[in-house]
Amino acid sequence: MFGILGVFAEFERSIIQERVKAGLARARAHGKKLGRPKADTSVEERIRQLAAQGMGKVKIAKILGVGVSVTQRGRHRTGIRRRSGEDAESALNAAAGREELHT
User: Fold this and answer.
1) How far is Cα 88 from Cα 2, in angstroms, rounded to an integer?
2) Separation CA 14–CA 20 (nearest Å)
3) With contact defined as beta carbons under 8 Å apart, do 28 and 34 qualify?
4) Residue 85 pLDDT more than 60?
5) Residue 22: per-residue pLDDT
6) Rounded to an integer, what distance in angstroms lies between the CA atom of residue 20 and that of residue 53?
7) What's the whole-number average pLDDT of the chain?
8) Among residues 55, 85, 84, 87, which one has the least CA distance to residue 71?
9) Cα Rg of the chain (Å, integer)
10) Band of the pLDDT at 92, cuts 50, 70, 90?
């Protein structure tokens, strides 16, 4: 009994997959862009500026009114990442490929 139900479930799932693939192909054929929309370049530039000042990703997101994931992607693209306890200048030097000189 359960075997028959499993066969029907697999068949139904394959039909759903075919419909989804056909719908995506039709959307692409009509020129529809799929996926997550890109953040505006002005927002990305502002994220870079605030991150360079040493501001955290959550604070940047609140100031700009965007999600934290947007700020994470913006910071990731620039290479500006701070480790716990690291100051902003060290993070910028690391992003630029320079070692911090200790005197």
Assistant:
1) 61
2) 10
3) yes
4) no
5) 97
6) 45
7) 80
8) 55
9) 23
10) low
* CA distances in angstroms from 18 to 21, 23, 25, 43, 73, listed in the order given: 5, 9, 11, 38, 33
Q: What is the pTM of this model?
A: 0.48
Backbone angles phi, psi at 53, to 5 degrees: -80, -5
Which of 78, 33, 36, 85 shows the shortest CA–CA distance to 60? 78
User: Cβ(60)–Cβ(73) under 8 Å?
Assistant: no
Q: Which residues contact 100 (CB under 8 A, 6 or more apart)?
A: 89, 90, 93, 94
3-state helix, strand, coil in the chain (%, to 5): 65, 0, 35
pLDDT at 21 over 90: yes
pLDDT score of 69 more than 60: yes
The tokens describing 3, both together, are 């075997």
